[in-house]
Amino acid sequence: MAVTTQARPESRATTTKKWVYLFEEGNKDMRDLLGGKGAGVAEMTLAGLPVPPGFTITTEACNAYYASGKKFPDGMWEQAIEALHHVEEKTGKKLGDPKNPLLVSVRSGAKFSMPGMMDTVLNLGLNPQTLEGLAKLTDDRRFALDAYRRFAQMFGKIVLGIEAEKFEKRLELAKEKAKVKTDPELKPEQLEKLVKEFKDIILKESGKPFPDDPLDQLRASIEAVFSSWNNKRATDYRNFNKIPHDLGTAVNVQTMVFGNMGNDSGTGVAFTRDPNTGAKVLYGDYLPNAQGEDVVAGIRTPQPISSLKKQMPDVYKEFETNAERLEKHYRDVQDLEFTVEKRKLWMLQTRSAKRTAQAAVKIAVDMVAEKLITEDEAVQRVEPTQVDQLLHPRIDPKAKPKVIAKGIDASPGAASGKAVFDADRAEQKAKSGEAVILVRIETNPDDVHGMIAAKGVLTARGGKTSHAAVVARGMGKPCVAGAESLKIDLEKRFFTVDGVKVKEGDLITINGTTGEVILGSVPMIEPAINKDLNQLLTWADARRRLGVWANADYPRDAKVARSYGAEGIGLCRTEHMFMEQERLPIVQKMILAADEKERRKWLAELLPFQRSDFVGILKEMHGLPVIIRLIDPPLHEFLPNYDEQLVKVTTMRLKKAPKKKLEQEEALLKAIEGMREQNPMLGLRGIRLGLLYPEIIEMQVRAIVEAAISLKKKNVDVKPEIMIPLVSHVNELSRTHETVERVVKEVFAQLKMEIPYKFGTMIEIPRAALTAGEIAKVAEFFSFGTNDLTQTTFGFSRDDAEGKFLLKYVEEKILPVNPFESLDTVGVGRLMKIAVEEGRKSRHDMEIGICGEHGGDPASIKFCHTLGLNYVSCSPYRVPVARLAAAQAAMETKERDR
Ligand code: PEP
Ligand code: MG
Q1: What is the crossing angle of helices 555-563 and 596-620, to 10°?
Q2: Catalytic choice (449, 467, 576, 636)
Q3: Closest ligand 1 atom number to CA of residue 783
Q4: Residues 343, 315 contacting (CB under 8 angstroms)
């Protein structure tokens, strides 16, 4: 029945907009207009399920209400009254009828679920007359009085804005006086008194008596729901979840049904499958003789849904059938709310169920097997971030951890171990088989060996792209960064937080997925690519165009990457190998060498180490490309910190240390001083190093080619690619290319064998992107180093920006996201686009990828897909995430093109 055209003169019906829809007039595709809840009940009504009759006032009406300075739009109230008459007809009850009163609920319902953010009024329609009617009808005066008490309380709080506490205090007092613990134990006389008291509060606080006319009650409640769209809670929630503020909320007015009318009544919430595991079982709670709000309030513990099967098998059966029907209808797991009123089942709500990562994957795969959804849909249903969660150890959701601090969720997963406060100790303890968590104020490259040894990293400073975060993510280890409430004393080896003291050796747990720091250990769930995830990723692989490679420095990382489906190594940062303990002293001597001759001597000592590193990684990746990047960071990063060295030398001088030792340390100090730069990030590093000290990269190139040839001789299929970082001018690259080619030829001649290899460069400086056409004449491939490209495009130093202002920028929406986490497609992305176009103009089949942190970020992956890159390269643990994200990007573009 069309509400607006019934019982209304023709002329007005055509000019008035339709603001109100009966449940039977809507459907599931009308979420914009009717909100999620309204569309859901409409669809259930259409499907012939038992839904208490009602109607929905549209989101457009809410917007019109605001637009006209908080007035109902023309015709809306009249349409609501008509719809109400229809509901009265359907139920045989009447609003305000003392003999057979209709009671309704008035609920908000926006397009997107905003749980608990807006307001609801229940039991509307009660007044002194209908109260008596209800008491008589139900033969339960206590029940009727309790309904009246709840209504007065909600109306006072929600519609009239009276502090909830005022009512709650009275209720508590009443229970105290009656010497009872729970609301249902209150006797009718006590409830009657309470209703009177509530009405007095309302009169006193609002200056007006509690309205007895149900239509006044309805009008005021609808207004209150409209208004709740803009309450602070709802506004904050929308800001946080990026829900637009101009959607408005719909209002659902629905016949009340009561689950608290005795033991043949009850209320429940159920999922059509287990939302934790994904198992195909009806999963949920049931509470006999209760209303929905009793479940939410947690006063009584609900029973498993199977208890309904025992108590009322016929009702259970009907519910089960409805649940199955709804799941089939929506082709997705449903979250259902229902009420049983005197053995009659009522369906109140259905919506797509929130689920854990594990359940999301299982459900998607199972539903394909059940022919409920297609493989395409399965691939689109799982969020890439959910896959990320699955590949890290997780805290068992049943655990009840003692959280002592909260930092930034810098690298996902959880780990327990003994707190240690320096990298050497972490390494020692790990070697003796102990699990440790490395706790530092912040980390730097000197801590890497400790990070390798630790199960996880906790820092008091730094953000999501601090050194600790980036390195931990690369290693697939959990990291909580920037836990600023920790007061760390590195020297005495302890930290305190909120009166808790954690000493070296005390057990702690960090949850890098939430940023929580926990005292003691907690039960964990170990990760793995299970059968379902493997199936989903295989479907994803068949749908993506982008290759997925990994950033890996060591054979062990390459192995993980390969097992997760990596199709190549997009970045092997050779300098990380220089940091390892036995090599660092040689590297330092090389840096401090007086002249080229001495430098070459130390480099010759490093050569076997580098060669064996490359043998390892090339062997692990046999048959697949491996991009090895030549040295990148400024040399002083391999030397001790200047300030620390100064303190050391001064102390030695004061303590009159042996002359020779002192001289050594003084020489070191002098060297560090000589290498200090104002802005090392923009100083002597990357390609510039190799141009100044060609012998360093000569050694590296020799190590790569010797390693590759030695493997080729053993029939290993090697595909090395040599990559130069930080190019800004083509001339830099041409010169470097000469050096590389010369060494390669030398080694070919010496070993009497040649191997194919590629020579390419990173694009991580704006000038390189802008002149990519020229650079592509020398480089055979490009790889976007978007970490540096973001720094240099914005003119931000990442560490300084994240430490000081970047998070505030994001909070205050000066920037939409942290550009180090998700590509700035507008600025940095524009440079990338230019580079791709110009590069391919010079070399049309040019291989182009990305190896910055963004290569593992789903939104950035989507952008890389549209740019036409060949692959994305990310940390090994993000490879599965990237496989899924790349497939979704391809499917989305395809759909759009269609
Ligand atoms: C980059 O700059 O994006 C990159 C991958 O190099 P690095 O992070 O080692 O500077
Ligand atoms: Mg870089």
Answers
A1: 30
A2: 467
A3: 5
A4: yes
Nearest CA to ligand 1 atom 1: 785
Predicted model pTM: 0.80
Structure tokens at 104: 């309704």
Q: Is-catalytic flag, 62?
A: no
Q: Looking at 62, 572, 851, 864, which residue is catalytic?
A: 851
Q: Ligand 2 centre from 730 Cα, in Å? A: 17
266-271 and 283-288 strand pairing: antiparallel
Per the structure block, which two tokens stand in for 58? 């549209």
Angle between helices 76-91 and 214-228 (to 10 degrees): 120
Q: How many distinct helices (H) and strands (E) make up the chain?
A: 37, 31
Structure tokens at 249: 């909320």
Does 467 qualify as catalytic in the annotation? yes
Identify the CA nearest to 588 among candidates 534, 528, 635: 635
- Taking the C-alpha atoms of residue 370 and residue 818, their distance in angstroms, rounded to an integer, is 41
Q: Is 787 in the pocket of ligand 1 (CB under 6 A)?
A: yes
662-698 pLDDT tens trace? 998 998 899 889 888 888 889 999 999 999 999 999 9
Measured in angstroms, how far is the CA atom of residue 100 from the centroid of ligand 1?
Answer: 74
DSSP 3-state assignment of 124?
A: strand
How many other CB atoms are found less than 10 A from the CB of residue 171? 16
Residue position matching structure tokens 């000493």: 503
Q: What are 74-122's pLDDT values in tens digits?
A: 999 999 999 999 999 999 999 999 999 999 999 998 888 776 666 789 9
How many angstroms does the Cα of residue 764 sit away from the middle of ligand 2?
6
